[in-house]
Amino acid sequence: FGRRTWALIHQRGAEIESMCSARVRIAAERLAFELAASSHEELVLASLAAEIMNNLGPNRFPKGCHPDRGRWIDQVVEAISDEPFRRWSLDEISKLAGHHPVHVAQSFRARAGISLGAFQRLRRLTRLSLALRQSKGTLANLAAEYGYCDQSHMTSEFRAAFGISPGRYRRTFH
Questions:
Q1: Distance between CA 167 and CA 39 in Å, rounded?
Q2: What is the mean pLDDT of each run of 10 residues along the chain (174 residues)?
């Protein structure tokens, strides 16, 4: 994507996100993460796109599944999406959902295909990758802004996800 495309995606992202279910939002976040990581795994990208399209279609709910079931999962995804830099605890999320922490963790993973912690990390890393493309701030300041203990913690998590350091990632776009 070029800079103009990324700016448009960033600008319209919040508007589009508010119209989507948790499944679509999570699949879209995973797709954004893969694109930010410059993934060339065509099968991964195609399957995530197909998952998004399937969940946007008229038959979004499997047989026997009522659209209102698990509505709390949408609330949890929305909360994490609204505050991607916050370090949510399972207790906070379970209070928001109104269910026991074990039920929340298991149900979220079963429905979303990803753990709560992995979704939170994915969300933060995706936003960080966008900031690295656009921001001129120091890496230490970005680490603090994005909820990391320090720059070293941010670097190790970013490198594990993208296979490249944040500084090197930034240099490819500037």
A1: 18
A2: 53 57 78 72 62 63 49 89 84 90 85 85 89 89 89 93 93 85
Q: Which residue has the tokens 């009522």?
A: 66
Q: Give pTM, 2 decimals.
A: 0.64
Residues 6 or more apart whose CB falls under 8 angstroms from that of 94 comprise 100, 101, 103, 104
| CA-based nearest residue to 124, from 55, 12, 33, 52 | 33
Half-sphere exposure of 105 (CA within 13 A, CB side): 10
What is the chain's percent helix, strand, coil content, to nearest 5?
70, 0, 30
How far apart, in whole angstroms, are the C-alpha atoms of residue 130 and residue 61?
Answer: 32
